[in-house]
Structures are given as C-alpha cells and as structure tokens.
Write a structure and sequence with these properties.
Multidrug-efflux Transporter 1 Regulator Bmrr, Chain A; 8 strands; globular; eight-stranded antiparallel sheet; alpha+beta; 146 residues
Length: 146
Amino acid sequence: MNYEVVNLEEKIVVGVSAITGNDDPNMGKTIGALWGKLYEGGINETIKNKVNEYAIGLYSDYQDNKYLVTVGNEVCKAEDEGLTIKKIPAGKYAKFSIEGHMEKAVAKAWNKIWQMDLDRSYAGDFEEYLNSDYNNAKIDIYISLK
C-alpha cells in the first residue's frame, strides 16, 4: 500500500469520543455510534469555528491495546463546551489516500496499515473524509511517525 511522508502543523479537533481497541468485539459498534451521534445526533451542526467541512476520525491516547476515538471536525479555535477537544500534534505522518465505500475502504486500509512496518509514534492517527459520498468516498489516513 503506497503512502507519502508529509509534515503537518498541529490541528485542533472538536467532537465526541469513546475508548475502544482492536481486540474489543464491540469496536465497530462503538465507532459507528460516535459517527451517528455526530451526524444524526446533530452535534456536527453545533461545532463552532470549523476550518472546513471535512470530518475527522482521530485515534489517540494509545494504551494497553486501547485508544481514544474522537470523531468531529478541525477547528481554528475550540469553543465548544461539553464536547471533546483533542490536538493532533505537529510532526511527520505517513499519508494514505484511499477511495471507495466509506466503511469498507477504511477497514481494508487499516487492516493493511496495522500489518505494515511503519516507525509509528502513536501520537495521533486520523482519517480525514474529503467528501460525504458514502459509496465513493475520498479519504486520507494519516499515521504519526517517529
């Protein structure tokens, strides 16, 4: 699976969060519920100071096979009480650009990424959804590197 190494500035993400892990049998349900809460629950419309309309799925706070998943939007200034505020650290990332069915393409890409020998820092990995076409999504996945 091809990728390019890019340097990113710090990003601030505001959204909703939950803790899960790759060995959690409810991981898919947990992450799916967050996306439902963001869009069907109306939270997406309430997020202030969005940089763009791209949705972000952030994986951070890795610990003991678990991590925090935050789904939301990048903002220029966090002013949202009651929502999770996380920072994606500035640094070096492996950028994977994928297209296809939103869930299936992302799941397939992550399966390959987890098997790759990347020099990961686990500082914060994220998906950036560049459109909202569920069957023909354009998504960039960023993996934090050392």
